[in-house]
């Protein structure tokens, strides 16, 4: 299955490539080495970047036209605190906003829930009502930024709040650009931030696909994420395979719901981890593009080119960061960022060196952004698309990643009697995914523990492991108090009858599979119904999911 | 408590308290302790102090291991210890995960038996549980 599709005659493909390249607008920088030697936009053989199956990149000119988006994840304390950090990121040359929510928000709980004790505003920003979302994006022109929101279980509600904030500020929903993670499958497999059982959750996802297809052409309604699968302990190949399989499963679910594949597939995007094994990562990124293109075209009958493009965000591997000698993490992040760039990512988040200890401090977050700016502007890697293409090792690694992934797809198809969607449901129910991930995590820990795998500062080279936590970002208890006060105020001044009516509509929509959930959710958040109230309005129909405890 | 003698294997309850879903570390710890000959009662995700107390009581646990990755340890760990005391249990509580060094003393003062940081070896993990169980029994 590892063919490179070298069917075009080489010269025809090259002519097509040149024509496509010449149509692209380019950045106004010299495309030459530091010593002044001009370099070509690509080297080697067809298929070239921008040509099926896109192994070498999704666009012909790649970073010559536009560097990857430097998207830094931020969110802590109150919405106002995060708003300040957002403005700082924009001032510092960041080009996209990325929002981290706190645990209660991610789980659809309000800050005054007993579950929220000790968690409010700690691992991200707390959003209870539309009022918090208004604070979060205050004085930021939402028509001029692209916003990524990392939330899954209650994604529909948070997306509705974002739309409501924009519309209050006179920005139409059709002009909103951004991504909501909304990848519920990997929650059951790895991140564990689910609310409802898989099938009703997927129904909400398909409702969002339909809604955004019709009304939000610049919005990416699902970011199919391998990142968390990898962080939970999977291998690179498992990350690749589980992620793409989840992607296929969403495609099958949407098609089964009657949506044409080319209507939504072009706005699906992906999110991968970039870990420390440099060539394995690059092979993984290249294989992801090739597999997605081939499956979309051959199996799902996509005809639009955009439907075949695996466009992805990358984040460096949080799990690779060590609490020991944390400054060494800057080197790890730089290498992982470089792998992301060489792998052709569309956007990149670089982790802060202190994240093994706490949320990033301001200085550490700045160094992380600077690290990718060094990769982008000083190393020359942005001058040439897929600069490692044609390397014997990199091509072999790409083929190997594809081979391993295809073996996993075959297993899932067997589980699902020919359907990847049913195979993914089955793999969630029977513990296949969590078991595979836990096995790989344990294998890795054994290797580190036995000294067969060296982690600098952890099991070797440990001189200098004196700790210094003095500059860690600390979130005080006052955040929780402020947030509880804010929530109480909002509840005080809203129209409770309007809230109740809107919530009843949400419940009614949940009970009616033919009704799209988005309009009633939009109405509900507009009445300042809380996140948890809207969650519960659906939970009364959908039920909750409880994982079987498997080690 | 009664099983902390030399022959019977130690019984350890492992749980994620609260909403935090990071369970990679706790699952690895579960296997490490099992490999070290202990009996692991793995409660998994989304436990409350009450559900953990109940399990510790029913399972006659020698130790409780909590894994915390969301910076909620200063609130949640003391709550757990207090809930055990309220139930008249003295089962030692060991906290692992992401706990900055500067917080360790506060946790120990609150009655946590031990704190295991990232990078602790399998031997350290098992020994910490044995030591805590010996003191707690």
Describe the protein.
The complex is a heterodimer of chains A (551) and B (137). Chain A is globular, with a radius of gyration of 23 Å. A nine-stranded parallel sheet of chain A has the order 5-4-3-2-1-9-8-7-6. In chain A, strand 3 (146-150), helix 5 and strand 4 form a beta-alpha-beta unit. Chain A starts with 9 loop residues before the first helix and ends in a 9-residue tail after the last helix. Helices cover 49% and strands 7% of the residues of chain A. Chain A has helices at residues 10-23, 79-91, 103-106, 130-136, 155-168, 185-191, 198-215, 227-231, 236-256, 261-264, 278-299, 305-308, 328-342, 362-378, 392-415, 420-429, 432-449, 478-493, 496-511, 518-526, 531-542, and strands at residues 69-74, 96-100, 146-150, 177-180, 219-220, 222-225, 268-274, 312-316, 347-349. Residues 1-6 of chain A have low confidence and may be disordered. With 551 residues, chain A is of the alpha/beta class. Chain A has a domain at 40-61 and 226-434: Methylmalonyl-CoA mutase (TIM Barrel), CATH 3.20.20.240. Chain A has 21 helices and nine strands. Chain B has 137 residues and is α/β, with parallel strands linked by helices. Chain B has a single domain (11-136), classed as Rossmann fold. Chain B is 44% helix and 22% strand. Chain B is built from five helices and five strands, in the order E-H-E-H-E-H-E-H-E-H. Chain B has a five-stranded parallel sheet with strand order 2-1-3-4-5, sandwiched between helices. In chain B, strand 1 (11-17), helix 1 and strand 2 (39-47) form a beta-alpha-beta unit. In chain B, helix 2 packs across helix 3 (73-86). The relative contact order of chain B is 0.20. The model of chain B is unreliable at 1-5 (pLDDT under 50). The A-B interface holds A 103-104, 106-107, 109, 114-119, 122-123, 191-193, 231-233, 319, 322-324, 356-359, 437-438, 441-442, 445-446, 449, 458-459, 467, 469, 472, 475, 546-551 and B 18-21, 23-24, 27-28, 30-32, 34, 40, 42-46, 48, 70-76, 79, 98, 100-102, 117-119, 121-122.
């Amino acid at each position: 299955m590892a063919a490179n599709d070298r069917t075009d005659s080489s010269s025809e493909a090259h002519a097509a490539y040149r024509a496509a390249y010449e149509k692209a607008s380019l950045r106004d920088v010299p495309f030459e080495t530091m010593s002044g030697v001009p370099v070509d936009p690509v080297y080697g053989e067809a298929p070239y970047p921008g040509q099926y199956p896109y192994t070498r990149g999704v666009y012909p000119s790649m970073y010559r036209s536009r560097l990857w988006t430097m998207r830094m994840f931020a969110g802590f304390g109150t919405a106002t605190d995060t708003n300040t950090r957002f403005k700082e990121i924009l001032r510092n040359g960041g080009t996209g906003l990325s929002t981290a929510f706190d645990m209660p928000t991610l789980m659809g709980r309000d800050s005054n829930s007993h579950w929220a004790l000790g968690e409010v505003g700690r691992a991200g920003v707390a959003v209870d009502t539309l009022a918090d979302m208004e604070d979060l994006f205050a004085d930021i022109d939402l028509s001029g930024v692209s916003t990524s929101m990392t939330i899954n279980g209650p994604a529909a509600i948070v997306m509705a709040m974002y739309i409501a904030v924009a519309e209050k500020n006179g920005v139409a929903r059709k002009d909103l650009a951004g991504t909501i993670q909304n990848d519920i499958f990997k929650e059951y497999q790895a991140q564990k931030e689910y609310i409802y059982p898989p099938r009703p959750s997927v129904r909400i996802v398909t409702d969002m696909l339909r809604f955004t297809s019709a009304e939000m052409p610049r919005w990416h309604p699902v970011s199919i994420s391998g990142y968390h699968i990898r962080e939970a302990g999977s291998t690179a190949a498992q990350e690749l395979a589980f992620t793409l399989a989840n992607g296929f499963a969403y495609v099958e679910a949407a098609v089964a719901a009657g949506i044409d594949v080319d209507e939504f597939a072009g706005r699906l995007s992906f999110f991968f981890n970039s870990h420390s094994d440099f060539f394995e990562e690059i092979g993984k990124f290249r294989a992801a593009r090739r597999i997605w293109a081939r499956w979309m075209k051959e199996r799902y009958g996509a005809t639009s080119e955009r439907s075949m493009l695996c466009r992805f965000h990358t984040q460096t591997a949080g799990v690779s960061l060590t609490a020991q000698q944390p400054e060494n993490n800057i080197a790890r992040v730089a290498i992982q960022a470089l792998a992301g760039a060489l792998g052709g990512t569309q956007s990149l988040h670089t982790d802060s060196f202190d994240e093994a200890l706490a949320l990033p401090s301001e200085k550490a977050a700045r160094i992380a952004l600077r690290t990718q700016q060094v990769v982008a502007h000083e190393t020359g890697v942005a001058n040439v698309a897929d600069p490692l293409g044609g390397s014997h090792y990199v091509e072999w690694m790409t083929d190997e990643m594809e081979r391993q992934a295809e073996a996993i797809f075959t297993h899932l198809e067997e589980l699902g009697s020919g359907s990847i969607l049913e195979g993914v449901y089955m793999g969630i129910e029977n513990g296949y995914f969590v078991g595979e991930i836990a096995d790989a995590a344990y294998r890795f820990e054994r290797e580190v523990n036995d000294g067969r795998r060296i982690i600098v500062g952890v099991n070797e080279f440990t001189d200098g492991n004196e700790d210094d936590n003095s500059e860690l970002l600390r979130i005080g208890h006052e955040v929780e108090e402020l947030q509880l006060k804010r929530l109480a105020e909002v509840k005080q001044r809203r129209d409770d009858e309007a809230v109740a009516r809107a919530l009843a509509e949400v419940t009614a929509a949940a009970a009616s599979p033919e009704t799209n959930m988005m309009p009633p959710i939009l109405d509900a958040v507009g009445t300042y119904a809380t996140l948890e109230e809207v969650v519960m309005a659906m939970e009364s129909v959908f039920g909750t999911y409880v994982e079987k405890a498997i080690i | 408590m009664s099983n902390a003698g030399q022959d019977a294997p130690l019984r350890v309850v492992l749980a994620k308290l609260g909403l935090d879903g990071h369970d990679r570390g706790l699952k690895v710890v579960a296997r490490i302790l099992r490999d070290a000959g202990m009996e692991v009662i793995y409660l998994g995700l989304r436990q409350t102090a009450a559900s953990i107390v109940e399990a510790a009581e029913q399972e006659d646990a020698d130790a409780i291991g909590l894994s915390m990755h969301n910076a909620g340890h200063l609130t949640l760990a003391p709550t757990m210890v207090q809930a055990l005391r309220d139930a008249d249990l003295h089962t030692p509580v060991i906290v692992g995960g992401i706990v900055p060094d500067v917080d360790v003393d506060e946790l120990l003062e609150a009655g946590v038996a031990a704190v295991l940081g990232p990078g602790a070896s399998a031997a350290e993990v098992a020994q910490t549980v044995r030591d805590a169980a010996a003191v707690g029994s």
